Amino acid sequence: MEKRYEILEHMADGKFRAYGRSLGECLENAALALASLMWDPERIKPEIRETIRLEATGPEQLTVKFLTELIYLLEVKSFLLGRVNEIRVEEISQNGKKTYRLEAEVAGDRISPQYEIYGQVKAVTYNEMKIEKSGDGLVLQVVVDM
Amino acid sequence: MDLVRISEFVWEIPKSGEMKVPARIYASEKLIELARRDQTLQQARNVACLPGIQRMSYVMPDAHQGYGFPIGGVAAFDLDEGIISPGGVGYDINCGVRLLRTDYKESDITAKRKELLAEIFKEVPAGVGKGGITKLSRNVLKEILVRGAEWAVEQGYGTAEDLDRTEERGRMKDASWEFISDRAMERGIPQLGTLGAGNHFLEIQKVDEIYDAEVARAFGINEKGQVLVMIHCGSRGLGHQIATDYIELMENKFGFKGLPDRELINAPFRSDLGQRYYKSMCAAVNYAFANRQMIAHWVRDVFARVMGSSKGMRQIYDVCHNVAKVEKHTVNGKEKLLCVHRKGATRSFGPGRAEIPEVYRQVGQPVLIPGSMGTASYVLVGTKDAEEMSFSSTAHGAGRVMSRNEALRRFRGEQIRDELAKKGVELKATSWKGVAEEASAAYKDVDEVVRVSHETKLGKLVARLVPIGVMKG
């Protein structure tokens, strides 16, 4: 299987690159990368589903808002992400202004002693954020505050 | 980039290009080398370009690369022509430190050390996703956001004397909950009275060295071996969400074109959005004060239960490390009110400042600098010199020198626990992997950081504290 994400070295915080053929796929893999900084997403049983809907002014802001939503779900609903079932990103142009709309369904489980949580991401930043074309796909780089 | 050495511990990036003022860095040769390795200096330069910045963009001895502003960055802005920036405060608003003294000596608690730590670990919720013990209503949260530690004391968590010995008396008066998002409120509700994770910790410490006996005595530190308790945490998800929200709101309103770094986004201090952020930030500061107030109370409870008494467990002080405050300072011979951003820096007011508690006004405020997990922490005292040098600020901690990945490759949590045990330090943690990430070898030498603070007179050494028991979230 192709590499979905890669955790990079960062002196103080967390940094990763997520790969995908589309922005949606990059965000899916970014969600898994973010989770992997705190727990092992592969070990999380897909017991519960959560729906995420949001809008942003650009792909970078969309990234920050989507990943921040996962931190919100963790802190408010004790939700540990295991996988992204579905993700759709639409680019809408209205009166010369672009809006990015995201809808996703994520699956995972509630915090419980069976899962080790070893880190905490406080916030998603724009620091060193990059969304670049690579071959026929995209690479999304994110730094998170830990 | 030009970097000019002014004196042994003072470096300067002269004004050039878009810079409105020079940048000044307080560091030893060893520390400046670390700052050169990442974006710290460039970030200090970027801050110097922001509207309304006064005197200089300052960098403290423990600085490292942050988001927009460097960690360890201090910048003050004119209230009329200047800005306020969430990136200048940081995501963890009022991440800070509280220090309690006790009348106990190390030998008094040796037999009960394990039990004390185990009980504190039980009493103080810590770790990711671990909720507080109180289920707050939204109305109570609103009250906490406005009244901070005052609310906590009124509820029976601690005493009025604690408030006297807290920055801002535990309450920023400009706070308002009105401009805080539902998301931020929701993140705040389950987390009040929790330590959190990452670099946050609670330590039982002992006094290892006293450098200034007179000032130490004024702070309640009397002798080597005396037991103290240090609490290091912040405003949790509430503060993180407020920062995230206002970065987005400011971007949507002002755009980020022309900014060398998107995280430098800001709003004019007097603008509607600037004021909304400021008041919300003050509310997050209050939340963090209440948080540490509750944790301190539980620690006292445990001492009372296990040791038989918590008598003499007075609070020495509680300081903010991530904050923007309106303070009076002198610029070009004129006193004026400024919005001072301290991001990973400690206020360091010297003797005489009205803002510091009356009991400390003769000597200066206590400055609390935690080390990394399992290493020494320091108590310093603020100085008059710091007013001229850094808008009354000094360092706040050690700062990382090794990535979390590398720390995980090099260390194992259980091994760190065993090594600490050999040194007589007890460790309790919610995750061993988390312990490995926070290995003290992954941090700068805090001894070097405080040495520079002392030599430059940003903050003078008072006492060195070493851990006996460590609780890591």
TrEMBL record, chain A:
Keyword Nuclease listed: no
InterPro entries recorded: Archease (IPR002804), Archease_dom (IPR023572), Archease_dom_sf (IPR036820)
GO molecular function: metal ion binding
Gene3D superfamilies in the record: Archease domain
Pfam family, one: Archease
Gene Ontology terms: biological process: tRNA processing
UniProt keyword annotations, A-Z: Calcium, Metal-binding, tRNA processing
Sequence ranges assigned to domain Archease in this UniProt record: 5-145
This protein's record includes keyword Cell wall biogenesis/degradation: no
The family this protein is said to belong to: Belongs to the archease family.
Protein name: Archease
UniProtKB/TrEMBL annotation, chain B:
Pfam families hit by this protein: RtcB
Gene3D superfamilies referenced in this protein's UniProt entry, alphabetically: tRNA-splicing ligase RtcB
Binding site for Mn(2+) 2: H232, H321
Catalytically driven reaction(s): a 3'-end 3'-phospho-ribonucleotide-RNA + a 5'-end dephospho-ribonucleoside-RNA + GTP = a ribonucleotidyl-ribonucleotide-RNA + GMP + diphosphate; a 3'-end 2',3'-cyclophospho-ribonucleotide-RNA + a 5'-end dephospho-ribonucleoside-RNA + GTP + H2O = a ribonucleotidyl-ribonucleotide-RNA + GMP + diphosphate + H(+)
InterPro entries, alphabetized: RtcB (IPR001233), RtcB-like_sf (IPR036025)
E.C. number: 6.5.1.-
Cofactor(s) this protein requires: Mn(2+)
Quaternary state and interactors: Monomer.
Name of this protein: tRNA-splicing ligase RtcB
Family indicated by similarity: Belongs to the RtcB family.
Binding positions for Mn(2+) 1 per the UniProt entry: D92, H200
Active site positions: H396 (gmp-histidine intermediate)
